[in-house]
Specification:
heterodimer; A: mainly alpha; MetI-like fold; 11 helices; B: 241 residues; alpha/beta; four-stranded antiparallel sheet; 10 helices; globular
Chain lengths: 231, 241
């Protein structure tokens, strides 16, 4: 109980004191997760929409791959990315291992199937008659698809929120491919692990509380997107 | 009523190997209200989908305002002259105003002023900011009608627009359709099970049976002196379906 109280107090103190190291960690966490989420959305939403509208060949096979991807253990993803980016790996020449780039790659692999799979489900749940109605009102094919996607926005935002939650809180993959290097690849989750291991529970708790608060605020902002439609 | 706006010749529509529509000839006249009656599965809704270019005929010639749509790609501007109000109104998960403005939005046109006037016309002036999904069936259908009228269609296709509605909503929708035809010369093709509605609204009535046009005549003649015995049976309410 003492640790929790001290953790709360330390969290407040760290935030209010404007601790530079803490803000660096928070900033890097947001940068890595933000970039990974943006890339996963960029590829995952169109793929999910195409699958949901039944416009893809090998639909069943792609769906199985996506569902499998949704259950990928992050540590396995980390291991895979590590091997790909290690000096002897096929992408070793990029020299991305132990850099934020490697962490972004790993997080994209984790987030992409979540975004694509849940977007597909959301689009499939839209009344199929809506496409016909949109076309009857003069929509082009692109407008028709955009209309369906907008109707599925609650599900698409939920997909984004789920993917965000999966990667902001993820530790196994970023630890493996980032290395938790202070000032370079240390993010909130890896810092929590480190401080727990070294027995600094109060700081670990403080970081955990900051992570939770950040997640809460970002999810709140994303949920506002579900309501944007009325003209 | 003017010249033919639609000319259909030897139109066949098949799904897999099943023929659902087979029309030798049908002309729809500019500015008329044409009612198509017939039992379920007669091909009425399929015909509307062909007229709105939502589906292509399997074979035959469908000419709209001089454009043979079977041979040429239909220009978007021409396609946008036609719209359908379906039996079940499909509304966006948005407020009433956004729904009525939807067709205009697709055209990049301004909805200023238009939406308010139309909502008054359909008796929903106080519902602009209400969620469309929370309206009653009759109100939803009136929103769908206002949405269709907002784009000022040259051809308005109505697929059982008043099925399952109460007499108040039926009468309101019929009056709006009548006024739209009278004041804007909008061509209306109405599919209905309700022969009384066809009698009240239409200039001409056609009977479709098993995908074929049995008889098409002026409304008075259709009801008073039908030529085909099947039409006579249908009008007398003796056709069991």
């Amino acid at each position: 109980m003492d640790d929790i109280t001290r953790g709360l107090a330390q969290a407040l103190e760290l935030i209010l004191s404007g601790d530079a190291a803490l803000f660096e960690i928070v900033l890097l966490s947001l940068q890595v997760t933000g970039a990974a989420l943006a890339l996963a959305m960029l590829a995952g939403i169109p793929l999910g929409a195409a699958l949901g509208l039944g416009r893809m060949r090998a639909q069943g096979l792609v769906t199985i791959f996506l569902y499998t991807g949704m259950g990928l253990p992050p540590v396995v993803v980390g291991l895979f990315v590590y091997l790909m980016l290690s000096r002897s790996g096929p992408f070793g020449s990029l020299a991305w291992l132990f850099t934020p780039s490697a962490m972004i790659v790993a997080q994209v692999i984790i987030a992409f199937p979540v975004v694509a799979g849940l977007t597909m489900t959301a689009v499939q749940a839209v009344d199929p008659q809506l496409r016909l109605q949109a076309r009857a009102l003069g929509a082009t094919r692109i407008q028709e698809m955009w209309t369906v996607l907008q109707e599925a926005r609650i599900g698409v935002v939920a997909a984004t929120v789920a993917a965000f939650g999966a990667i902001i809180s993820e530790v196994g993959a970023v630890m493996l491919v980032g290395g938790n290097i202070e000032g370079k690849t240390r993010v909130l989750t890896t810092a929590i692990v480190l401080n727990t291991r070294t027995g600094d529970f109060a700081l670990a708790l403080a970081l955990g509380m900051i992570l939770l608060t950040l997640t809460f605020l970002i999810n709140g902002a994303m949920l506002q997107l579900q309501r944007v439609r009325d003209g | 009523m003017g010249e033919s706006i639609f000319q259909l010749r030897a139109i066949v529509k098949q799904y897999d190997a099943r023929t659902v529509l087979h029309l030798d000839a049908l002309d729809i006249l500019q500015g008329e209200i044409l009612a198509l009656v017939g039992p379920s599965g007669a091909g009425k809704s399929t015909l509307l989908r062909l007229l709105n270019f939502l589906e292509a005929p399997t074979s035959g010639q469908l000419v709209y305002r001089g454009v043979n749509t079977a041979r040429e790609n239909i220009p978007l501007a021409l396609r946008r002259e036609i719209t359908t109000v379906f039996q079940r109104p499909v509304l966006l998960n948005a407020n009433v105003r956004a729904n009525v403005a939807f067709g205009l939005q697709l055209r990049g046109a301004s909805a200023n002023g238009v939406v308010g006037k139309l909502l008054t016309r359909v008796g929903l002036q106080n519902f602009a900011h209400a969620s469309a999904r929370k309206l009653s069936g009759g109100e939803m259908q009136r929103v769908a009608l206002a949405r269709a009228l907002a784009i000022e269609p040259r051809v308005l296709l109505l697929d059982e627009p008043t099925a399952n509605l109460d007499p108040y909503n039926i009468s309101l929708i019929e009056e709006i359709v009548r006024a739209q035809n009278r004041e804007r010369a909008t061509t209306v093709v109405l599919v209905t099970h309700n022969i009384f509605q066809a009698k009240r609204l239409a200039h001409r009535v056609g009977l479709l049976l098993n995908g074929q046009l049995v008889e098409l005549r002026d409304t008075a003649q259709f009801f008073q002196s039908p030529q085909d015995p099947r039409t006579a049976a249908f009008v007398r309410g003796e056709m069991v379906y």
